[in-house]
Amino acid sequence: MTAKLLRMASPDTHHITTPAQLAQLFGAVGEASVRKEVPHVHPHYRAMIEASPFAVLATSGPGGLDASPRGDAAGFVVVENPTTLLLPERRGNNRVDSLHNLVTDPRVALLFLIPGVGETLRVNGRAVISVEPALLQRFVVNGQPPRCVLVVTVETVYFQCARALQRSGLWEAVPSDRPAKVPTPGTILSALTDAAIDAQQYDSELPARQRDTLY
User: Fold this and answer.
1) CB 102 within 8 A of CB 65
2) What distance in Å separates the CA atoms of residue 188 and residue 206, rounded to the nearest whole number?
3) Of 104, 110, 161, 180, which residue is 20 to 30 A from 60 by alpha carbon distance?
4) Are 34 and 82 in contact (CB under 8 A)?
5) With 0-12 CB in 10 A as exposed, 13-18 as middle and 19+ as buried, what is 166?
6) To 5 degrees, how large is the angle CA 162–CA 77–CA 110?
7) How confident is the model at residue 3 (pLDDT cuts 50, 70, 90)?
8) What average pLDDT does the chain have?
9) Residue 112's closest CA among 49, 59, 173?
């Protein structure tokens, strides 16, 4: 019994649970890693945001955490001024998990990616959801305004080094077709609905549906 209890308890001895343990594990933060963080959008950071066609938006709310993709033509997130970003909310699946979180907790984090660039840009701040008509009109694409615009008040900005993207090979050549081991949306939905959704029909209709509802 004692040996069994020891086996059950032993993993806890390998858990990091305090800032002091983290400091001992990773060591001191380098000067560059500290000084690259600023409370505003520096002109060089603005250039990165304006070159980015893709970002991940992270939020927190009563239902938990959410991280979801945002993408459009490069520069779709507008730097209104050094402490304000504007992020249009386009059509999606209408779950609006991020927006549900924001109505109760304004904290946001954004991770900007730029194709071919190893460094990413991280922005932390607070956001409000705006449906001001004049603001929506600024983001009309193909005659369609966004559903709303997130007005983000910037608190911290810094770039992330390229190691993660270098290790992942994210910007290396991609296959011309879908990797065989990656299931299609229809395949996933069919499995999760006990075939109530037909995989083949869903996948065949999806490209046109996405194209027609892109904005």
Assistant:
1) no
2) 13
3) 161
4) no
5) exposed
6) 50
7) low
8) 93
9) 49
Model confidence at 180, pLDDT cuts 50, 70, 90, reads confident
Question: What are the C-alpha distances in Å from 16 to residues 19, 22, 29?
Answer: 8, 7, 18
Alpha-carbon distance of 203 to 49, in angstroms, equals: 33
Give me the CATH code for the 31-168 domain, please.
Answer: 2.30.110.10
Separation in Å, CA 209 to CA 92, 184, 189, 203, 205: 11, 15, 16, 10, 6
- Residue showing tokens 């109760």: 104
What ranges do the domains of the chain cover? 31-168, 175-215
pLDDT in tens, 146-160: 999 999 999 999 999
Q: Which two tokens mark 57?
A: 């938006």
Tokens of 62: 């009563």
Q: Which amino acid is at 209?
A: R
